[in-house]
Amino acid sequence: MIFDNILIYFVIVPLLTLGGLALCSNKGVKAVRAVALTGATVLVAMALYLVAYFLQARGAGDASEMLLRSDVSWYAPLNINLSLGVDGVSVVMILLSAFIVFAGVFASWKINPLPKQFFLWFYLLSTGVFGFFISIDLFTMFMFYEVALIPMYLLIGVWGSGNKNYSAMKLTLMLMGGSAFLMLGIIGIYYHSSADGNLTMNILEIAHNNSIPHSWQSVLFPLTFVGFGVLGAMFPFHTWSPDGHASAPTAVSMLHAGVLMKLGGYGCFRIAIYLMPYAATQLGWIFITLTGISIVYGAFSACVQTDLKYINAYSSVSHCGMVLFAILMFNQTAMTGAVLQMLSHGLMTALFFALIGMIYGRTHTRDIREMGGMMHIMPYLGVGYVIAGLASLGLPGLSGFAAEMSIFFGSFQDASLLNRVFTIAACASIVITAVYILRVVGKLLFGEVYNERHRQLTDAEWFERVSTATLIVCVAAIGCFPNFFGDIIRNSFDPVVKAIQMATM
User: Fold this and answer.
1) How many Å from the N-terminal Cα to the C-terminal Cα in the chain?
2) Which helix H or strand E contains 360, and what residues bound it?
3) Residue of 19, 46, 11 whose CA lies nearest to 35
4) Domain extents in the chain
5) For site-directed labelling of 360, which of 185, 224, 267, 298 has its Cα 20 to 30 A away?
6) Which of 328, 495, 474 is nearest to 414 (CA)?
């Protein structure tokens, strides 16, 4: 029975939360908060249990590619199944999602207007995210992928700020365009999934069959990688991201940058590279070039912004580019760094957006030219912003250090001139990151108080402290115990690396 599998409850719990929210009165704000918090707490508890179970199973010698496998036929004519399973990468992505949803609930504690409707769409987005990470069936993954994207339009268009209608429409159109490429890629993979005519949507079976002709791989790989790369803000398909982040409400920015963009990197790794290793090795240089440009371009663009959200959005373009860049190195070290970077960037970006939203809610501006001296006025939020900035810089003891060092060491293992040039450029981007992070910290926190009305502002409230403290603890945990997370994910890359090696023989 599929209901004996804990994985299905990562979809059921958000759906039950949706049901609970639907039963709440539109005026029952306390009940809405209670239901939303209960759902988030249960998700965190399940994620922690899943990590413990996974470590215990691996420690007991279970070397299966995917644990907690379940298959239920959904649409037999196309062999579409509700296929569930997780490896180390899936487990840590689920853990990341659970903590950001938990922090996002507290960050939206006083959302206005329509708090009930906000949390309904918020949990629908969460359902798509969790469903995507637990699925190993192409169609099911694509379905949950779309479920995660659709709520973004309303969440930004209704509860956003600034030019929210334009931003919501731009984001939706570009991501749906990426979905169109992705759908074409999935259809092509399905019709070449087996040499004996027994077509399948199961990722493990497709990889085992290794039946996609090289000529078709050369067509399908770019379609699939671009489809996921759009969500991963890969240059030149990144333009939706800064506008979307700038207009999105705080919790949506947190979940969007912290988790949703990770679906792009995860999909590139799980589908594009794993199922089409030959094309990945032959055409990888094109996307290495594009992702290398993303890293440098995003960092330079962040330097010239004055809006806090735009600064963080372009920083996300740079950091997500680093994830895709590392995945394309095709070795254990770089791929481990890529997943650690997903974790690190997800947490620190969620922390950034949470803090920016709290500062904006008090000052009613995100322009750093109009703010200063916030460390004296709001010391808790100021310290949190410094910690997030230092994590983005890759300071030892915080999450960014282990991730970026693994990426740089792994990327430099390849003797290719192109790879080494872009690796050096990626290393240099750290210096650029230091420029815009330290510039903002110095201006925003330690400069003079330009607006005397800001002296009357209050520091973080209890629910804001819970939200930010959760993320700070997670950032510090990854930085202090990188081996713990590295050990969870390391063996997950063996099938991909073996597929790459066989393709190059």
Assistant:
1) 42
2) helix 332-363
3) 19
4) 2-73+81-503
5) 298
6) 328
Residue 176: how many other CB atoms lie within 10 Å: 14
- Tokens at residue 143, please? 């379905």
CA distance 475 to 404: 14
Helix ranges, 108-163 (H): 115-134, 138-159
Contacts of 273 (CB under 8 A, 6+ apart): 280, 327, 328, 330, 496, 500
- Which residue carries 């790369």 as its tokens? 229
| Concatenated DSSP letters of 170-229 | HHHHHHHHHHHHHHHHHHHHHTTS-SSS----BHHHHHHH----HHHHHHHHHHHHHHHH
- Amino acid sitting at position 169: M
Closest by CA position to 305, among listed 365, 361, 367: 367
Sign for the pseudo-dihedral over CA of 48, 401, 256, 457: positive
Question: Hey, is 71 helix, strand or coil?
Answer: strand
Distance CA 152, CA 252 (A): 8
Angle at 376 between CA 372 and CA 377, to 5 degrees: 80
Listed residue (56, 67, 63, 204) closest to 491, CA to CA = 63
CB 93 within 8 A of CB 9: no
Query: CA distances (Å), 218 to each of 32, 42, 236, 284, 345, in order?
Result: 50, 43, 21, 11, 31
Residue the block writes with tokens 């990327």 = 411
Question: What integer pLDDT is reported at residue 187 of this predicted model?
Answer: 92
Compute φ and ψ for 493, nearest 5 degrees.
Answer: -90, -5
Helices 308-327 & 399-411 angle (0-180, nearest 10): 40
Nearest to 334 by CA among 265, 258, 428: 265
Mean pLDDT in residue range 429-449: 82
Within 10 A of 458 (CB to CB), how many other CB atoms are there?
A: 8
Cα distances (angstroms) measured from residue 351 to each of 127, 333, 373, 383, 431:
22, 27, 20, 12, 22
For the record, the structure tokens of 199 come out as 């077509």
> Under a CB-based contact definition with an 8 Å cutoff, are residues 298 and 257 in contact?
no
The whole model's pTM is what?
A: 0.93
Here the tokens at position 133 are 């990470």
DSSP state at residue 433: H
pLDDT, one tens digit per residue, over 322-372 is: 889 989 888 888 888 889 998 888 888 888 888 888 888 888 888 888 887
How many whole angstroms separate alpha carbon 305 and alpha carbon 367?
Answer: 9
